[in-house]
DNA sequence: CGGTCGATAGTCT
DNA sequence: GACTATCGACCGG
């Protein structure tokens, strides 16, 4: 199955998120291709979602999320990590789905090389567990922000070519509070917007929002 | 195992 | 100036 048209992605992230599970996200560039079977995602719902980057409107960083669905929103955070999202909803909505984890199904050697290059010690057994590691395994950087998900795209030299192939059937999954989201957006009962496939070794461990450090 | 904490810089108030 | 959609080392049990 090829990458669906943008219209397929242009729905509520609460609906799109589970549809992404089990699908294969792939990024290719001059050094090769890495693809992963998505096992964990989180929905972010714009103006209705205090936990979303887009909650307070459009800025330079989140502009891509306000664009049409079916594109990659990539941002940089904590001074060292990138994260990959798939833009959802209609243009102007500011909706998206964060890709938190996946099983590497293509380009394992390249993914391993990328992780090894960025740390002193040996990488963990799972190459794409956690959003920072997903971006690292895929080789995604800020240059990928705004890239379209499409087959056979001619990407600029500094950016990868992205595609996404949905699963033929939505796999069994569960939901829970999002990781690292503080305030009302992290509330378990009102925003159980993390979706994952139980039993998958690539799924990241739950972490509550970092408590404020005083001192 | 689980908790605690430093690294490190872009973004927004 | 505070916070961050994080990661992994380190330490105690």
Task: List key phrases describing it.
single chain, 215 residues, 8 strands, 14% helix, DNA-binding
Task: Tell me what you see in this structure.
With 215 residues, the chain is α+β, with helices and mostly antiparallel strands. Helices cover 14% and strands 26% of the residues. It contains four helices and eight strands. Strands 1, 2, 3, 4, 5, 6, 7 and 8 form an eight-stranded antiparallel beta sheet that branches. The structure holds a DNA duplex (13 and 13 nucleotides).
CATH class category name: Alpha Beta
Number of helices: 4
Structural class: alpha+beta
Shape: globular
Secondary structure tally: strands: 8
> What's the alpha carbon Rg, rounded to whole Å?
16 Å
Q: What is the helix content?
A: 10-25%
Taken in chain order, the helices and strands follow as: HHEEEEEHHEEE
Number of domains: 1
Mean pLDDT, all residues = 93
Q: What's the name of the CATH homologous superfamily?
A: Methylpurine-DNA glycosylase (MPG)
């Amino acid at each position: 199955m090829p990458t669906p048209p943008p219209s397929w992605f242009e729905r509520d992230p609460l609906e799109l998120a589970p549809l992404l599970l089990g699908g294969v996200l792939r990024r290719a560039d001059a050094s090769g291709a890495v693809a992963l079977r998505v096992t964990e995602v989180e929905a972010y719902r714009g103006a209705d979602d205090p936990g979303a980057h887009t909650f307070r409107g459009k800025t330079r960083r989140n502009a891509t999320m306000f664009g049409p669905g079916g594109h990659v929103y990539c941002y940089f955070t904590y001074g060292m990590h990138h994260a990959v999202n798939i833009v959802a909803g209609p243009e102007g909505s500011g909706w998206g789905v964060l890709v938190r984890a996946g099983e590497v199904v293509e380009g394992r050697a390249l993914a391993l090389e990328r992780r090894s290059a960025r740390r002193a010690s040996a990488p963990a057994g799972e190459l794409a567990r956690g959003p920072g590691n997903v971006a690292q395994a895929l080789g995604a950087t800020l240059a990928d922000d705004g890239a379209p998900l499409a087959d056979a795209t001619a990407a600029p030299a500094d950016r990868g070519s992205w595609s996404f192939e949905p699963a033929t059937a939505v796999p069994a999954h569960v939901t829970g509070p999002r990781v690292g989201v503080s305030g009302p957006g992290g509330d378990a009962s009102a925003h159980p917007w993390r979706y994952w496939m139980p039993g998958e070794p690539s799924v990241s461990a739950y972490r509550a929002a970092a408590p404020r450090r005083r001192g």
